[in-house]
Amino acid sequence: MQSKERMVGGSPEAIDLRRKVHIGEALIQGFLFVCGVISILTTLGIVFELGRESLGFFTRQVWENTDKTLATAVDPDSTELSLSRGGTGIQAGDLIRIENEIMRVETATGEVAIVVRGQQGTEAVAHPANTTLFRGRRVSLLEFFTGSKWNPQIGHFGILPLVTATLITSVIGMAVALPLGLSVGIYLSEYASDRARKILKPILEILAGIPTVVYGYFALTFITPLLRGVFGQNTVQIYNMASAGLAIGILILPLVSSMSEGALSAVPRSLREAAYAMGATRLEVAVKVVVPAALSGIEAAFILAMSRAVGETMVVAIAAGQGPNFTLNPFRSAETMTGHMVRISGGDLSYDSIDYNSIFAIGLLLFLITLSLNIISQRIVRRFREVYE
Amino acid sequence: MTIQQLSAPGLLPDQSSEFVNNLPSRYRLALFWQVAFLASTILGIVVLTALLFNIVNGAFGLAAVEVKVNPDSLAKEGVPIEDQSKEQLIQLLQETLKPAVYQRLDTEKPFDKRSRSEVYALVIDRVVEPKVMQTWPLFDSLVHRDEVLAEIAAKYPEAEVRFLSWINFKFLTTPQSSQAERAGVRTAILGSLWIISITIVVAFPVGVCAAIYLEEYARDNWINRLIRTNINNLAGVPSIIYGMLGLAIFVRALEPLTSGAAFGLVEDPTMANGRTILSAGLTLALLILPVIIINGQEAIRAVPTSLREAGLALGATRWQTVWAHVLPNALPGILTGTILAISRAIGETAPLVVVGASTFVIRDPSGPFSKFTALPIQIYQWTSRPQAEFRDIAAAAIIVLLALLLVLNVTAILLRNRYSRRL
Lengths: 389, 423
Prior knowledge:
The complex is a heterodimer. Chain A has 13 helices and 8 strands.
């Protein structure tokens, strides 16, 4: 038997050329795949948590003071309330709260309301006269996007002041970073000698590596005094959006310059040489040939910079001021979306407070804004790659 | 087409007048813009200089220091306190300090075990109690020294003028305090190091594995395309959003795990709090994961295909090829990328604030389940205070943070140079 097998062993059929299943290999591949999937889980986690808590924000019962009081005391089993004059009117179907008891209004005529007592698991109890009535309501999307006051604690849910402050600081930042960053990019790619580039690029990298909290310190202790010196102490408040915006501009400048430099130097040499051969000056080559050819890369850089400016947190938290303020004057203090989120979550935040829900609603809006900016930027970059590869 | 036809009107510019005449103005414009481009670049450098100058300016400078008790009055039998023995100094402390304070100091570290210089420092700190009345930035202290001295003499006649460096050994080794003179960054540095170690332990293996998967294993199907786009999008999500994710998942949902209650480390389960070093480290790990993956992918992509083919041709399995050939060659790139990602994580402030950094921590962190503060948090809090002294120590803390980042970046560059030569 043995000798027979030996003989067969020499023949080609004995070598198994079929694909072997290595269990170890499959396990490793599975593990690596799981690591890759963690990124998707992160995104899902972000979307799920922001969505869930924001839903909690928009479906939450908030109690609004009606400035009405009970005209007479009520017993636990009485369903007729006589109310004081004035204040906000109460309509049929409203939920109202007196002390800790929640009631539903059946009919409301003038100063008399018929109610169903003890709603939502509360117990019907006696209430003395002159007790304040609260009307229950929900935060509507319309109110969220158009209201001009933000203070969830007392029932103001308009996000506009936070959005305008975010816009103002970002626009100032972009006004600084885009022209400067593009100029630096053009200089590095079209004018600078190799030696100059070798010195300048690390300097910009240093600027990009400095933590944002340091820029916040810089804005507050350097830019603000500078602005106050130039425009006057009375015009410029100690905390103001202008200085935060300028600091954001400096912060995103390296991003703009390095991305646009990359796009510019990816433009083929032949284009430049053709333009020079036609007698164009260096500026004309740079501005009329190279920049248009690299335009999509530059656009992508601009949009990414915008997303960074909107999401920037520490600079505005330190320098732009605390407390929402609906103003368009950049020298006034106002709180941005991110600044507000940091301030609110800085204290010991209780998990079922309206503040906790509200910062998630702001976070969701911020996430959607930056995500759409990033996606647009990537789309543009992809178009740009198709042209030159 | 002949030359005559080409030079017909409209086809080539009129060589004699228009074409030649606009040359000077075109050159002028070119020069102007060249200067403008250069000026922008220089402006960038000027801003960087201003930023660094501003920090150094705050961290050093002249200060007017007033003492509560004149040290000369503490001399015993003609021996000034500088020359008194340890026992005499302890006795002095016992006499002047409140018994409760003395007891507390004794329990922190028994007096018998303290060296003479430690006791002397305590006497200066607790009995003499120097208080900084006002500080002047470095620039004024050097350039307008005389004016500053005159101002001090007018405003604080009792005060002693000192050249103060807020950043010193004591600053690095003492914990947080409510007084700027006594505050230090010890707990903050330790907190930062703890958080970063957890971040590295989690993010590095996961990130590298994900990069290997995407570059070596992933076929071009929808799920892998989804992972790729998703990683690019995650890299652009503002850091504060990661903070909210950490707050909702690590701090709140996984509270039993992150507070240590599940491991029986919290005595009273109702007091369990997920705002711990572990939560912060995991949050930052999620934050830098996309950066590590993207850098890792680039490093792996740079390894020549011939190496893989050689390995596979010799009968090695896919994983054997990756482990023995691809990874060793991609390692310097991966390490550089990881270090850069970590230096980003060290400076991150917003997610830590949202995850719930404690405002005031005096005790050193004892493990992943203790409350935490970190260097950038400390800088943020000190900068937010209105008093000038706190701005000064914020500047000192910024110098510590920048030094830490510098060390990391230099390591990254050295690694890159050392290993890239071998390839």
